[in-house]
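User: Hey, my collaborator sent me this sequence without any context and asked if I could get a structure. I don't really work with proteins. Can you help?
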Amino acid sequence: MGMDERRQFLRVDAAVAVHYRLRESPERHLTTTVDVGGGGVCLLVPEPLPRGAYVEVELTLPGEPRAIPFTAQVAWCDPAPPPGKTRCRAGLEILFIARQEHDRLSRYCLKKLGGLPPRPPDAPGV
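Assistant: No problem. I've predicted the 3D structure and written it out in structure-token form, which is a compact way to encode the shape of the chain:
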């Protein structure tokens, strides 16, 4: 089963500003996302992050005055930047996020997709 089939949350391609730091380090880094979703994000990082490491993240959505804070865990990371690139990709799974912040992130993803998908004609009413 591929990673896309295991996902419970929608992911959208988006370059969003992110501050992150490994939990055991005081050093904060600024980078961008490759994609974002309700269950996690993919970041561009200057060097590989250790799989399983806990990461404190502040994601700033375009046009939003305040960042979305959450705690994540490194699910996977490229071992090195691809040839000709200076950064590698790291997949982070969101572990702890406030409900209202998760809702903000989900609304952003839906907006990026152009709204909610149409309801099938045989779907029960709300």
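In plain terms: The chain has a mean pLDDT of 86. You can pass these tokens on to your collaborator as they are.
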